[in-house]
Structures are given as C-alpha cells and as structure tokens.
TrEMBL record, chain A:
UniProt keywords, alphabetically: 2Fe-2S, Iron, Iron-sulfur, Metal-binding
Name of the protein in question: Nitrite reductase/ring-hydroxylating ferredoxin subunit
InterPro entries in UniProt: Rieske_2Fe-2S, Rieske_2Fe-2S_sf
Coiled coil regions in record: none
Keyword Iron tagged: yes
Start and end residues of each Rieske domain: 3-116
TrEMBL record, chain B:
Domain of life: Bacteria
Entry protein name: TIM-barrel fold metal-dependent hydrolase
Residues of the Amidohydrolase-related domain: 62-350
InterPro entries, A to Z: ACMSD (IPR032465), Amidohydro-rel (IPR006680), Metal_Hydrolase (IPR032466)
Keyword Glycosyltransferase: no
Pfam families: Amidohydro_2
GO molecular function, a single term: hydrolase activity
Signal sequence segment: none
Organism this protein belongs to: Virgibacillus natechei
Length: 118, 360
C-alpha cells in the first residue's frame, strides 16, 4: 500500500502531522535534521493519538544523582495523555520498556512529496 | 481510534470543569470581588513541580478550540468526552481549591469562593447538560460556614456529593461531623479528592514521580481516619467516594485495619464492626489512575477486597493522567464491568437517577 501524505515542506523540521495509510491512522514525524518517520498514531498504553503530543528530547542516563543532560532533541515522540515516550530514530521503541515499540511504516520522499508505504 | 471494548453505560465519577477568576466575579459580593478585581488576588499554590508531561496537568488534546484551558468549555467537553465515550452521567469534581492548605487561615474568603463556585457550577454546567451532576464545594475548615453552604445548595437536584480535599487535614475528627450530618440530611455523598499537598509525612517529595506514585497513601490516611473516628457508625447512611487514588492499595488497607482492630479495638469503642466490613459498606474507590493490569491481576484485587461493589470508573478528564473508558481496564466479566462502569457509582450516589423500570 502506498499513500501520499503531503508535500515535504508541509512538515517543518521538529514537527509532525496525522494522516492515514489506507484505514490506518498514522503520525508522520520530521526530526530536526530533516528526516521523516511514520508510526501508527496510537499510544501503546491507552490508545491516545500521538500526533496530539510533542516531539521533544530525553535526559541521558547517568550515575550522578541530580545530573541532567538533555539529548535527542526532537527525536522523542511523547504521548499527549500519560507522556509515554517513543524514540522515533530507534524504530519507535518505548523508552521505559524497550521491548515495546510502535508499529512503524516506511517513508520515502518522492518528487518532494512525503510518501508512506505499508 | 480502534475501540477494543464495546461502548457501555458509563457513569464517570471524576470530571474536572475549570473556572477562571473572571468567571467567578459575577457570583461574588464585595469585599471578596474587590480582592480579585481591584487587588489582583490570586490563590497561592504549593506544588513545587512543573509536571514533566506534555501540557502540564492537562491532556494536550483537551485545549479548547479557541485556545482556552482544558475544562473551561462545556461544548468542547461534551464533544470530546460525553458524546465520544457515551457517558450516561458524569460527576463534576471541579478545579477550585478553597482547602486549608491553599487558603491557610483565610476561611472567610474560602467560604465566599466556594459559594460563588457552586452558583457558577449550577448555572453554567449542571443546568446546561442533563448528564452532568455536581459537587458542593465548601470551606470545610470552618464547619459552621460549610454547613450553611450545604444547606443553601445541597438540595439542588443535581448536586450529588460534598467535596472534601485531601490535603493537610484528616476529616474524621468529630469537629467536622456537622458536615456529615448535613450530608445525610440532603442525601449527599462525600467525595474526597486530593488537593495540595496530599502528603502528610515528610512534606513534598523531591520529584513529581514520587508524589504521583504515593497519592494512595494520602487516601489511606483519610479512610483510616474516617473509619476509626467512627464516622460511619455515627452516620450509617453515609457514602464516601475516594477519588483519584486508584484501588489497588485497598486490600492491604482493609487487612491491616482489621488486624489492628483485633489488637487495639479498646482504644476506639465507638467503632463496632470490623473495619473491612465498614469499608465494604460505605467506601468506594475510583479506578483512575489505574495501573496496567491483566484480567487475572485485576480480579485478584477484587477478590481480596471481598466485594465487587467497591470500584467505580473515573476518567479524570481533562487531566494528563486521564483513563480511557475503552482502554484503561482489562476485559472483565460482563456483570462486573456493568458494576464498575455504572452501577457501583449509581449506588454510591443516591441522588443519581435509577435506570428506567428499576426500584431503588
């Protein structure tokens, strides 16, 4: 299955939008370095629409209490309800439970259009 | 969004409508109005965290279409929650905080705010949607004034409970019993919902994740306090609904209280039955914020509670830890789901209408 979502420039770096792939609700994300990723638009927890959340970063794991280092800015898709986090550059893996991940879809840029494949 | 569970009759026991000070001004007399309008009074809040979520305490997708704060627009709430999820009824639990921890000693202003809020709630929410039922807000730290307010609005047909905050006081103390007497008089239940701060010992923990994890401890303190101070022996018709503490702590609490009762009963001779029995008969617990539970795990909690009548469903809309009626709970036996999603709440709130053809 192939679906043209929008023009490439319709999604600015660091932004996302909802779409459908056939009957499947999807969210198409664009990282700050311009790459595109597409996932099922449904949180694995209670099904919230992820496209209503935000693209943000993570805090780097540390052994030093009180030490904060902000990483992966714009690469973490965070749920609009319970704030569960998914690493969009790492196959949609849930940060808290890495054995869980979002259903992902292949994205291609064809003639400046964002095209998603199943 | 795919729906795993068929839509069913839902009585949602925790929906937060939100007021702004400007909304309240028409319902306030001077000098109270002046404190807000001319002196720019704002309520001091205590929570030391910025909630590390997407939109503070709210669902990010609950911002109103005109950009207003979540919970401020009846029409949007009807569309996003009541219509979408098929609610039969929703109990409004508000977002005003006239509690001791926020108002300190200024109970005169707290009383005025609570009255204004009740009038605002009735006019703008309860009388505009037949599905919505309300909570009487009171400045409970001053029982005489609180009882006056209950007498003033408690007989409104759509007021179903009196709201008490879970913060710095334990409400079983006989000093507060006039509130329960008034509740019985008006066939109102008591709803307890956490305010700020709900931690009795150690004050605020360092992180929001600690505070949110330990919410049930504040609920346990209140239930223990209400039971051991003999509230339900003194007011045998009283219903207590513990809102937004979940229910998985309850089996431990019941077991612990029973054991203590066997050993220390002589200290509280006004309590005449096993605490677990009192809790089973008088206290109800909302599901939200529910942990992810398998059907087997869920049923283990129910079995240990010894009753299928104690758990009531709640969404906590529009807050960030909202629980979806279709997704939050595991699939359960049909009859149990009917109880949790609607009938347990209908029994806990005697003023709610009964299903057509039923005899109460």
């Amino acid at each position: 299955m192939r679906e043209v979502v929008c023009e490439k420039e319709d999604i600015h770096p660091g932004k996302m939008r909802s779409a459908t792939l056939g009957k499947i609700p999807i969210v198409v994300c664009r990282t700050k370095d311009g790459e595109f990723y597409a996932f099922a638009n449904r949180c694995l927890h209670q099904g919230a629409p992820l496209s209503e959340g935000i693209l943000c970063g993570d805090t780097k794991r540390t052994d030093i209490h009180g030490n904060y280092e902000y990483i992966k800015d714009g690469e973490i898709l965070r749920c609009p309800w319970h704030a569960l986090e998914y690493d969009i550059k790492n196959d949609g893996v849930m940060l808290a439970e890495p054995d869980k991940k979002l259903r992902s879809f292949q994205v291609a840029i064809e003639d400046d259009q964002v095209v998603v494949y199943k | 969004m795919p729906k795993r569970r068929k839509q069913r009759r839902i009585i949602d026991t925790d929906i937060h409508e939100r007021v702004t000070y400007s909304d309240l001004l028409p319902y306030l007399d001077n000098p109270w109005r002046r404190y807000i309008e001319d002196n720019h009074w704002v309520q001091e809040k205590h929570m030391p965290y910025t909630q590390p979520t997407v939109a503070g305490v709210d669902r990010a997708d609950a911002v109103t279409p005109d950009g207003g704060a979540a919970g401020t627009d009846l029409g949007f709430m009807q569309k996003q929650l009541l219509d979408a999820e098929g609610h039969e009824y929703g109990i409004l639990s508000g977002a005003l905080d006239p509690s001791p921890s926020s108002m300190h000693g200024w109970y005169e202003m707290a009383t005025a705010l609570a009255s204004a809020y009740n009038d605002w709630q009735i006019e703008n929410w309860l009388e505009k949607d037949s599905r919505l039922y309300g909570s009487v807000h009171i400045a409970a730290q001053e029982p005489q004034q609180a009882v006056r307010e209950i007498e003033r609005v408690g007989s409104h047909p759509k007021m179903v409970q009196i709201l008490l905050p879970i913060d710095t006081r334990s409400w079983g103390d006989p000093y507060y019993h006039p509130i329960y007497e008034a509740a019985e008089r008006h066939n109102l239940s008591i709803g307890m919902h956490h305010n700020e701060p709900p931690t009795h010992f150690g004050g605020w923990p360092r992180y929001f994740i600690e505070w949110h994890t330990m919410l049930p401890t504040a609920h346990m303190i209140q239930v223990s306090n209400m039971v051991f101070n003999g509230v339900f022996d003194k007011f045998p018709g009283l219903h207590l609904i513990m809102i937004e503490g979940g229910f998985t702590h309850v089996p431990h609490l019941m077991k612990k209280m029973d054991q203590q009762y066997k050993e220390l009963r002589h200290e509280i001779p006004w309590v005449k039955r096993m605490p677990s029995r009192i809790i089973q008969e008088h206290v109800r617990f909302t599901t939200q914020p529910v942990e992810e539970l398998s059907q087997k795990e869920f049923m283990q909690f129910v079995d240990q509670m010894g009753s299928e009548d104690m758990i009531c469903f709640a969404t906590d809309y529009p807050h960030w830890d909202y629980d979806s009626p279709l997704e939050a709970l595991p699939k359960l036996d049909e009859a149990l789901e009917e109880k949790i999603y609607s009938e347990n709440a209908r029994a806990a709130y005697p003023k709610l209408p009964q299903p057509a053809g039923s005899v109460k």
